[in-house]
Write a structure and sequence with these properties.
Layout lengths: L4 H20 L13 H4 L3 H15 L23 H5 L6 E4 L6 E4 L10 H9 L13 H14 L3 H4 L10 H11 L1 H4 L18 H7 L1 H10 L30 H11 L5
Helix pairs in contact: 3-6, 5-6, 8-12, 10-11, 11-12
Bound molecules: heme C (2 copies).
The site of one heme C (HEC) has 25 residues, from helix 4, helix 5 and helix 6.
Length: 268
Protein backbone atom coordinates (compact mmCIF):
# COMPACT_ATOMS: atom_id res chain seq x y z
CA UNK A 1 0.00 0.00 0.00
CA UNK A 2 1.48 3.40 -0.91
CA UNK A 3 2.38 5.53 2.07
CA UNK A 4 0.06 8.42 1.25
CA UNK A 5 -3.10 6.36 0.71
CA UNK A 6 -4.29 7.35 4.18
CA UNK A 7 -4.63 10.91 2.88
CA UNK A 8 -6.53 9.68 -0.08
CA UNK A 9 -9.48 8.27 1.87
CA UNK A 10 -10.37 11.47 3.81
CA UNK A 11 -9.98 13.52 0.62
CA UNK A 12 -12.43 11.23 -1.13
CA UNK A 13 -14.90 11.71 1.75
CA UNK A 14 -14.59 15.49 1.49
CA UNK A 15 -15.30 15.41 -2.24
CA UNK A 16 -18.39 13.26 -1.63
CA UNK A 17 -19.61 15.67 1.04
CA UNK A 18 -19.22 18.71 -1.20
CA UNK A 19 -21.08 17.02 -4.07
CA UNK A 20 -23.81 16.00 -1.61
CA UNK A 21 -24.30 19.59 -0.50
CA UNK A 22 -24.70 21.06 -3.96
CA UNK A 23 -27.02 18.17 -4.87
CA UNK A 24 -29.39 19.23 -2.11
CA UNK A 25 -29.78 22.59 -3.80
CA UNK A 26 -30.70 21.11 -7.17
CA UNK A 27 -34.12 21.98 -8.62
CA UNK A 28 -36.60 19.36 -7.45
CA UNK A 29 -37.86 18.48 -10.94
CA UNK A 30 -34.33 17.62 -12.10
CA UNK A 31 -34.00 14.87 -9.51
CA UNK A 32 -35.20 11.34 -10.09
CA UNK A 33 -36.54 10.51 -6.63
CA UNK A 34 -40.01 11.48 -5.37
CA UNK A 35 -40.12 14.00 -2.49
CA UNK A 36 -39.06 12.51 0.83
CA UNK A 37 -41.82 13.11 3.45
CA UNK A 38 -39.16 13.40 6.17
CA UNK A 39 -38.16 16.65 4.43
CA UNK A 40 -41.25 18.30 5.89
CA UNK A 41 -40.22 17.72 9.50
CA UNK A 42 -36.69 18.96 8.88
CA UNK A 43 -37.73 22.00 6.89
CA UNK A 44 -37.09 25.60 7.87
CA UNK A 45 -40.29 27.54 8.53
CA UNK A 46 -38.52 30.90 8.48
CA UNK A 47 -36.92 30.15 5.14
CA UNK A 48 -40.35 29.20 3.78
CA UNK A 49 -41.81 32.54 4.86
CA UNK A 50 -38.95 34.44 3.27
CA UNK A 51 -39.19 32.45 0.04
CA UNK A 52 -42.87 33.41 -0.03
CA UNK A 53 -41.81 37.07 0.12
CA UNK A 54 -39.06 36.88 -2.46
CA UNK A 55 -37.65 33.55 -3.58
CA UNK A 56 -35.88 35.23 -6.52
CA UNK A 57 -33.76 37.31 -4.18
CA UNK A 58 -32.84 34.29 -2.06
CA UNK A 59 -31.98 32.21 -5.15
CA UNK A 60 -30.27 35.18 -6.81
CA UNK A 61 -32.21 34.75 -10.03
CA UNK A 62 -34.00 37.22 -12.22
CA UNK A 63 -36.91 37.04 -14.65
CA UNK A 64 -37.28 39.36 -17.60
CA UNK A 65 -40.76 38.31 -18.72
CA UNK A 66 -43.95 38.38 -16.68
CA UNK A 67 -45.48 35.25 -15.19
CA UNK A 68 -48.05 33.93 -17.75
CA UNK A 69 -50.47 33.29 -14.87
CA UNK A 70 -50.35 36.93 -13.84
CA UNK A 71 -53.39 38.55 -15.42
CA UNK A 72 -52.24 42.15 -15.61
CA UNK A 73 -49.65 44.06 -17.54
CA UNK A 74 -47.03 45.38 -15.16
CA UNK A 75 -43.76 47.23 -15.43
CA UNK A 76 -41.99 44.97 -12.96
CA UNK A 77 -42.02 41.51 -14.54
CA UNK A 78 -39.75 40.04 -11.86
CA UNK A 79 -42.29 40.71 -9.13
CA UNK A 80 -45.04 38.71 -10.87
CA UNK A 81 -43.17 35.53 -9.93
CA UNK A 82 -43.23 36.22 -6.20
CA UNK A 83 -45.78 34.19 -4.25
CA UNK A 84 -47.24 37.15 -2.37
CA UNK A 85 -47.95 39.00 -5.61
CA UNK A 86 -50.69 36.52 -6.50
CA UNK A 87 -51.65 34.90 -3.20
CA UNK A 88 -51.42 38.15 -1.23
CA UNK A 89 -49.87 39.33 2.01
CA UNK A 90 -53.12 38.25 3.66
CA UNK A 91 -52.74 34.84 1.96
CA UNK A 92 -56.37 35.01 0.83
CA UNK A 93 -55.68 34.99 -2.88
CA UNK A 94 -57.03 37.49 -5.35
CA UNK A 95 -59.69 38.01 -7.91
CA UNK A 96 -58.90 39.75 -11.15
CA UNK A 97 -60.91 40.88 -14.06
CA UNK A 98 -58.80 40.64 -17.14
CA UNK A 99 -58.94 44.01 -18.88
CA UNK A 100 -60.94 43.70 -22.10
CA UNK A 101 -61.87 40.06 -21.70
CA UNK A 102 -64.78 39.82 -19.28
CA UNK A 103 -63.42 36.71 -17.62
CA UNK A 104 -62.62 36.82 -13.92
CA UNK A 105 -59.52 34.98 -12.81
CA UNK A 106 -59.20 33.74 -9.30
CA UNK A 107 -56.03 32.93 -7.46
CA UNK A 108 -56.92 30.54 -4.65
CA UNK A 109 -56.34 31.66 -1.09
CA UNK A 110 -53.66 29.71 0.73
CA UNK A 111 -55.71 30.13 3.91
CA UNK A 112 -57.92 27.43 2.37
CA UNK A 113 -54.94 25.07 2.02
CA UNK A 114 -53.52 25.05 5.55
CA UNK A 115 -55.26 21.78 6.51
CA UNK A 116 -54.30 19.90 3.37
CA UNK A 117 -51.79 17.04 3.53
CA UNK A 118 -48.23 18.28 3.16
CA UNK A 119 -47.47 16.19 0.06
CA UNK A 120 -50.46 17.66 -1.77
CA UNK A 121 -49.31 21.21 -1.08
CA UNK A 122 -45.77 20.23 -2.05
CA UNK A 123 -46.91 19.05 -5.47
CA UNK A 124 -49.15 22.09 -6.03
CA UNK A 125 -46.03 24.22 -5.64
CA UNK A 126 -43.56 21.95 -7.46
CA UNK A 127 -45.63 20.92 -10.48
CA UNK A 128 -48.12 23.04 -12.27
CA UNK A 129 -48.89 25.07 -15.35
CA UNK A 130 -46.27 27.29 -16.93
CA UNK A 131 -45.37 29.93 -14.37
CA UNK A 132 -46.26 27.67 -11.46
CA UNK A 133 -43.89 24.72 -11.85
CA UNK A 134 -41.62 26.01 -9.11
CA UNK A 135 -39.89 22.61 -8.92
CA UNK A 136 -37.98 23.76 -12.00
CA UNK A 137 -36.11 26.27 -9.89
CA UNK A 138 -36.64 25.51 -6.19
CA UNK A 139 -34.98 22.59 -4.42
CA UNK A 140 -36.88 19.91 -2.54
CA UNK A 141 -35.87 21.48 0.80
CA UNK A 142 -37.12 24.89 -0.29
CA UNK A 143 -40.48 23.50 -1.42
CA UNK A 144 -40.88 21.68 1.90
CA UNK A 145 -40.07 24.97 3.66
CA UNK A 146 -42.83 26.75 1.70
CA UNK A 147 -45.21 23.87 2.47
CA UNK A 148 -44.44 24.17 6.15
CA UNK A 149 -44.96 27.92 6.07
CA UNK A 150 -48.40 27.45 4.49
CA UNK A 151 -49.45 24.81 7.04
CA UNK A 152 -47.87 26.21 10.20
CA UNK A 153 -47.10 29.89 9.60
CA UNK A 154 -50.33 31.06 8.02
CA UNK A 155 -53.01 29.78 10.46
CA UNK A 156 -51.86 31.90 13.45
CA UNK A 157 -52.16 35.08 11.36
CA UNK A 158 -55.90 35.36 12.05
CA UNK A 159 -55.19 35.85 15.74
CA UNK A 160 -52.83 38.75 15.03
CA UNK A 161 -54.65 40.84 12.44
CA UNK A 162 -58.34 41.15 11.57
CA UNK A 163 -59.66 40.84 8.03
CA UNK A 164 -60.00 44.65 8.10
CA UNK A 165 -56.30 45.09 8.83
CA UNK A 166 -56.59 45.94 12.55
CA UNK A 167 -53.95 44.40 14.78
CA UNK A 168 -55.50 42.26 17.46
CA UNK A 169 -53.16 43.52 20.14
CA UNK A 170 -53.00 45.96 22.99
CA UNK A 171 -50.91 49.05 22.16
CA UNK A 172 -50.27 49.74 25.86
CA UNK A 173 -48.71 46.31 26.32
CA UNK A 174 -46.77 46.69 23.06
CA UNK A 175 -45.01 49.90 24.03
CA UNK A 176 -42.30 48.20 26.13
CA UNK A 177 -41.68 45.49 23.54
CA UNK A 178 -41.36 48.09 20.81
CA UNK A 179 -38.84 50.05 22.92
CA UNK A 180 -36.81 46.94 23.70
CA UNK A 181 -36.90 45.26 20.31
CA UNK A 182 -37.43 47.78 17.53
CA UNK A 183 -36.31 51.26 18.60
CA UNK A 184 -32.60 50.58 18.32
CA UNK A 185 -32.92 50.37 14.52
CA UNK A 186 -36.29 51.95 13.70
CA UNK A 187 -36.15 54.86 16.18
CA UNK A 188 -38.57 55.82 18.96
CA UNK A 189 -41.05 57.19 16.42
CA UNK A 190 -40.60 54.23 14.07
CA UNK A 191 -39.32 56.51 11.31
CA UNK A 192 -35.60 55.76 11.66
CA UNK A 193 -35.67 53.64 8.52
CA UNK A 194 -37.59 55.18 5.64
CA UNK A 195 -39.36 52.67 3.39
CA UNK A 196 -40.70 55.23 0.95
CA UNK A 197 -37.74 54.59 -1.37
CA UNK A 198 -38.13 57.08 -4.21
CA UNK A 199 -41.51 58.50 -3.20
CA UNK A 200 -41.59 61.76 -1.23
CA UNK A 201 -42.35 61.73 2.50
CA UNK A 202 -41.15 59.42 5.24
CA UNK A 203 -42.83 56.04 5.45
CA UNK A 204 -41.76 54.42 8.68
CA UNK A 205 -43.24 51.60 10.73
CA UNK A 206 -46.30 53.63 11.67
CA UNK A 207 -47.15 54.30 8.03
CA UNK A 208 -46.66 50.62 7.15
CA UNK A 209 -48.61 49.32 10.15
CA UNK A 210 -51.58 51.48 9.15
CA UNK A 211 -51.50 51.19 5.36
CA UNK A 212 -49.96 47.75 4.80
CA UNK A 213 -50.78 45.82 7.97
CA UNK A 214 -50.47 42.30 6.54
CA UNK A 215 -47.16 42.97 4.80
CA UNK A 216 -45.89 44.60 8.01
CA UNK A 217 -46.98 41.58 10.03
CA UNK A 218 -45.35 39.12 7.63
CA UNK A 219 -42.01 40.91 7.61
CA UNK A 220 -42.01 41.57 11.34
CA UNK A 221 -42.69 37.91 12.08
CA UNK A 222 -40.40 36.38 9.54
CA UNK A 223 -37.84 39.01 8.63
CA UNK A 224 -36.96 40.07 5.13
CA UNK A 225 -35.67 37.99 2.28
CA UNK A 226 -31.96 38.57 1.97
CA UNK A 227 -31.92 40.91 4.99
CA UNK A 228 -32.41 38.44 7.81
CA UNK A 229 -30.36 35.61 9.08
CA UNK A 230 -32.30 33.58 11.62
CA UNK A 231 -29.16 32.60 13.46
CA UNK A 232 -27.46 36.01 13.39
CA UNK A 233 -27.03 37.46 16.85
CA UNK A 234 -28.95 40.65 17.51
CA UNK A 235 -25.92 42.93 17.34
CA UNK A 236 -24.12 41.58 14.29
CA UNK A 237 -24.59 43.62 11.11
CA UNK A 238 -26.71 46.11 13.04
CA UNK A 239 -28.95 48.21 10.78
CA UNK A 240 -28.50 45.79 7.93
CA UNK A 241 -30.31 42.85 9.42
CA UNK A 242 -34.04 42.76 10.03
CA UNK A 243 -34.35 40.18 12.82
CA UNK A 244 -37.37 37.90 12.54
CA UNK A 245 -39.60 38.48 15.57
CA UNK A 246 -40.83 34.88 15.40
CA UNK A 247 -37.23 33.69 14.85
CA UNK A 248 -34.17 35.10 16.57
CA UNK A 249 -36.17 37.56 18.73
CA UNK A 250 -38.31 34.68 20.01
CA UNK A 251 -41.51 36.74 20.35
CA UNK A 252 -44.93 35.09 20.57
CA UNK A 253 -47.78 35.92 18.22
CA UNK A 254 -49.55 37.91 20.94
CA UNK A 255 -46.42 39.94 21.68
CA UNK A 256 -45.97 40.73 17.99
CA UNK A 257 -49.61 41.84 17.67
CA UNK A 258 -49.17 44.13 20.72
CA UNK A 259 -46.00 45.68 19.29
CA UNK A 260 -47.58 46.36 15.90
CA UNK A 261 -50.76 47.72 17.50
CA UNK A 262 -48.49 50.17 19.30
CA UNK A 263 -46.57 51.01 16.10
CA UNK A 264 -49.87 51.90 14.44
CA UNK A 265 -50.51 54.57 17.11
CA UNK A 266 -47.26 56.45 16.34
CA UNK A 267 -47.38 59.58 14.19
CA UNK A 268 -46.80 58.91 10.50
C1 LIG B 1 -48.68 34.57 -11.11
C2 LIG B 1 -49.53 34.22 -10.03
C3 LIG B 1 -49.03 33.19 -8.99
C4 LIG B 1 -47.81 33.13 -8.36
C5 LIG B 1 -46.62 34.04 -8.53
C6 LIG B 1 -47.88 32.01 -7.46
N1 LIG B 1 -49.09 31.40 -7.54
FE1 LIG B 1 -49.70 29.77 -6.49
N2 LIG B 1 -51.38 29.66 -7.63
C7 LIG B 1 -51.75 30.58 -8.60
C8 LIG B 1 -52.94 30.09 -9.28
C9 LIG B 1 -53.67 30.78 -10.44
C10 LIG B 1 -53.26 28.85 -8.68
C11 LIG B 1 -54.37 27.88 -9.07
C12 LIG B 1 -53.77 26.96 -10.08
C13 LIG B 1 -54.71 25.95 -10.59
O1 LIG B 1 -55.88 26.02 -10.28
O2 LIG B 1 -54.19 25.07 -11.30
C14 LIG B 1 -52.28 28.62 -7.61
C15 LIG B 1 -52.27 27.52 -6.76
C16 LIG B 1 -51.40 27.37 -5.69
C17 LIG B 1 -51.51 26.36 -4.66
C18 LIG B 1 -52.64 25.34 -4.58
C19 LIG B 1 -53.79 25.98 -3.87
C20 LIG B 1 -55.12 25.38 -4.18
O3 LIG B 1 -56.10 25.79 -3.51
O4 LIG B 1 -55.22 24.57 -5.09
C21 LIG B 1 -50.48 26.54 -3.78
C22 LIG B 1 -50.19 25.72 -2.53
C23 LIG B 1 -49.69 27.65 -4.29
N3 LIG B 1 -50.28 28.13 -5.44
C24 LIG B 1 -48.54 28.13 -3.69
C25 LIG B 1 -47.71 29.09 -4.29
C26 LIG B 1 -46.37 29.41 -3.82
C27 LIG B 1 -45.70 28.80 -2.60
C28 LIG B 1 -45.89 30.35 -4.67
C29 LIG B 1 -44.50 30.96 -4.71
C30 LIG B 1 -43.39 30.04 -4.81
C31 LIG B 1 -46.94 30.66 -5.65
N4 LIG B 1 -48.01 29.85 -5.39
C32 LIG B 1 -46.84 31.63 -6.63
C33 LIG B 1 -51.11 31.75 -8.89
C34 LIG B 1 -49.84 32.08 -8.49
C1 LIG C 1 -31.05 45.24 14.07
C2 LIG C 1 -31.88 46.25 13.45
C3 LIG C 1 -33.38 46.05 13.41
C4 LIG C 1 -34.25 45.72 14.45
C5 LIG C 1 -33.90 45.44 15.90
C6 LIG C 1 -35.58 45.69 13.87
N1 LIG C 1 -35.53 45.98 12.53
FE1 LIG C 1 -37.09 46.06 11.26
N2 LIG C 1 -35.81 46.37 9.70
C7 LIG C 1 -34.44 46.53 9.81
C8 LIG C 1 -33.86 46.64 8.48
C9 LIG C 1 -32.39 46.84 8.17
C10 LIG C 1 -34.94 46.54 7.57
C11 LIG C 1 -34.86 46.52 6.05
C12 LIG C 1 -34.70 47.87 5.46
C13 LIG C 1 -34.62 47.75 3.94
O1 LIG C 1 -35.66 47.54 3.30
O2 LIG C 1 -33.54 47.82 3.43
C14 LIG C 1 -36.14 46.37 8.38
C15 LIG C 1 -37.41 46.20 7.84
C16 LIG C 1 -38.55 46.07 8.59
C17 LIG C 1 -39.88 45.92 8.03
C18 LIG C 1 -40.20 45.75 6.55
C19 LIG C 1 -40.67 47.00 5.89
C20 LIG C 1 -41.08 46.74 4.46
O3 LIG C 1 -40.33 47.13 3.55
O4 LIG C 1 -42.11 46.13 4.23
C21 LIG C 1 -40.75 45.85 9.09
C22 LIG C 1 -42.25 45.70 9.01
C23 LIG C 1 -39.97 45.95 10.30
N3 LIG C 1 -38.64 46.09 9.95
C24 LIG C 1 -40.50 45.93 11.58
C25 LIG C 1 -39.74 45.79 12.73
C26 LIG C 1 -40.30 45.62 14.06
C27 LIG C 1 -41.77 45.65 14.40
C28 LIG C 1 -39.24 45.45 14.91
C29 LIG C 1 -39.28 45.14 16.40
C30 LIG C 1 -39.97 43.92 16.76
C31 LIG C 1 -38.02 45.52 14.10
N4 LIG C 1 -38.37 45.74 12.79
C32 LIG C 1 -36.73 45.41 14.61
C33 LIG C 1 -33.71 46.56 10.98
C34 LIG C 1 -34.21 46.21 12.23
Amino acid sequence: MPKNSRFFVPLFAVVLLVCGCSGANRPFLSQQAPPDPAGYRNSDLLLGAQLYDNWLKIKRVSRSSANPLYPRATANARNTHRCYKCHGWDYRGRQWKKPGAGKTRRVPGLTESTDRPADEIFLAIARGPEGHAFGEVLSEGEIWALTRFIREGIPATKKMVSSKGQFRGNPQSGRAGFAARCVICHGADGNGIDFSRRKPGVQGLSYLAKHKPEQTLHRTRWGMAGKSSPSAPFTRGMFKIMPAAAGSLGLSGAEIADILAYAATLPE
